[in-house]
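note to self: dont lose this again. the chain is below, predicted strucutre after it. 203 aa total, dont forget to put it in the shared folder this time
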Amino acid sequence: MLNIKTLRDLWKNKSQFITIFLMVFLAVFAFAGVHAYMDGMKESSYKYYENQNLQDIWLTSKNFTDEKLESIKKVSNVRNAERFLRINANAIGSEKYINPLNGKPIEDLVIECNFIESNEINKMYILEGEEFSKEKKGIWLDYYLARNLGINVGDEIELSLEGNNFKEKVMALVEVPDHVYSIKDDTAIFPTHTDFGFRIYIN
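---
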């Protein structure tokens, strides 16, 4: 008798029942979808950082000699260490690049130059172009900056670095794990990838 009464009540109030069912279904569906998306991003980031061997710590020195590097490698729990030099340079002729956000020429394109000796820690992730090699001469350029400014593999970029001008060929477009979030200076809140990017050289 109770079952019959339940079915009768459901039939009489089917519109309300369907509405409540759909609301609950959509809420659970949205929650499960967002949760799965976030969990997937977290798992992907863990794999990316592990595969590219993101560094655990930075050490800064005015003159990082070979002796200092070897002494750091001998510290317990240190698996590897690398030296590199980071310095900003200005792009020559940056006005030929158009800012996709406002359609205006780029007035001050700053490129962070990273001079490295090897590619074992914080390894580059190649998206387009040639694989890394110490024997190759050229630069590995920030993928997102290149895509926004229309720079392709094989193009040449001219820079001014501490009074010296030089031109290099783009060997590949890359990402590196420690530049997932990088900004031009303290006045910027979010990376725009239009007037600031990074490039990697080989010593």
